[in-house]
Specification:
Growth Hormone, Chain: A; about 425 residues
Length: about 425
Amino acid sequence: MTPIAESAQGDHRATYREVLAEPRFRLLFTTRTVAITAGALRITTFSVLVFAATGSALLSALAFGIGFLPQLFGSLLLGSLADRLPPRSLIAGGYALECTAALLLALVRMPIAVSLGVVALVALATPVFSGASSRLVAQWLEGDAYVLGRSLNNIAGSGAQLFGLALGGTAVAVLGPHRALAVSAALYLGCALAIRIRLRPEESGGTPGSARGDGGAVRASLHGAGLLLRGHTVRRLMLAQWLPPAFVAGAEGLIVAYAGERHFAPGRYAVLMGCLPVGMLVGDLLVGRLLRPPTRERLVVPLIVLMGLPLVGFAAEPGVGVSSCLLLLCGFGFAYGLGLQRPFLDALPEDGQGQTFGLLGSGSMTLQGIGPACFGSVAAGIGTGGAIALAGVAAVLTAGWILTWHPPAPARRTI
């Protein structure tokens, strides 16, 4: 039994029906799903708009990813606000800020550099309101219900992202990029209003944390992030949630190039790209619905191995059919994250959960943005098949590292 399994608290298995029966979670779940759709629509449309204005593939790619990297800096500099300010105001204000940014891009003719700056500024604040939302979910859902709540968010998030990307292409073709951005703004506005109207202040988690109230927000955020990352248990549980997806993202970023090198038929790369999220959806559903909590936690290491080993198969440069099956299996392995949710929540300080969740999300987004650049550089030397295989080896090595963990010491509940 791994140390992760030893941290299980009982074997009660919740159901998705029980989780969705909590009206406050249902509200956050619904608005988050709509917001992810709006975000994917905005990202796609903005990237198209930048390419149409500049003809630069580099600037278009930068427009696609500019909302990711600043999140880490936002978490480090502003993350403590997720615990210091009222959650309802933070979450509604975050959606309103996203709405404003989309409206500016849709209605105001700005230089490209200014447009990129607007998106980057919004990304700085994203960890604050996403951390506040995650803190509420952790307060409202207990035990296995919390794990299934995270599972539902993963499933809906993947589906909403795919739908938003597809909607972006259709909306740009039918409405044009500026009106498509206005649609994105309308979706964000609906989310902000729903939170503001339907989430009562007394339901949004009580009094914000005050343990970090000494000093300014930036100083408190840096201090809190430093304490979190120095904590052995929290740090390694974060790394366990960051590293395997980052390696897989590095491989995913090479799929288009791999399809081109192998001379697959036009459009086949889209089939390959869709296999990972489909595998993720199936994995989360089956692992979350059918397995008991201790079993999920025992399967963390095997599922990470399942993420990595199929990618190693790309060293043989398989065709479309085999590649699709390998990517489906890899995506299924993403369900390993469900087995880390309870140990991670148990290790968190009670007065810093919002900042911790914000740091978890922003760190994951940052590393998943760095992964494709790193393995893209490797592919220049050994080919795309070899680079994808190397990413799989890295994921398997992460699983081996987790096997070396010792049972965690009791978590300190304040920092």
